[in-house]
Amino acid sequence: LYLRPMRKGISREINRVLIVYKTSSFEKHALVQKEKNYLRLLRKGDPAIRRSKRAHETHTHTFETVKKHLRELKIPFDIKSRYRLSPISGYDLVLTIGWDGTFLETSHYLQ
Fold first, then answer.
1. Phi, psi for residue 4 in degrees, rounded to 5
2. How far is CA 29 from CA 3, 10, 41, 90, in A?
3. Is the pLDDT at 6 greater than 60, yes or no?
4. Is 18 helix (H, G, I), strand (E, B) or coil?
5. pLDDT in tens, 28-45
């Protein structure tokens, strides 16, 4: 979470939000690339793949919940993949959905 600094005593509405997300490993390997070995392990109930799937479901739920609340609040937002970042400016709030690597990567692009 990054909120653009304000001068002391000045309040500001949040008018523009950027959501930066990370593609989960489950999404990448199972849903996009449909890797045969990964899917085989998923069918066999491999514990590591099950954890990856649960993490993906939590990640997706978080992403959808954030978007839902922003829509309800009528706050416009843009979405960018962590892997397609360019310099970031003009946003009142930047939210990252991923792990600490997503947060740190995004921080390098804030202007």
1. -55, 135
2. 33, 47, 11, 34
3. no
4. strand
5. 999 999 999 999 999 999
d(CA 82, CA 33): 18
Token readout for 88 is 């970031």
State how far the alpha carbon of 41 is from the alpha carbons of 26, 29, 35, 46, 59, in Å. 12, 11, 10, 5, 21
Residues 6+ apart with CB under 8 A from 87: 109, 111
pTM, entire model? 0.81
* C-alpha–C-alpha distance, residues 86 and 78, integer Å: 13
Cα distances from 80 to residues 23, 77, 99, in angstroms, run: 11, 10, 15
Question: What is the reported pLDDT for 55?
Answer: 94
Amino acid at 52: S
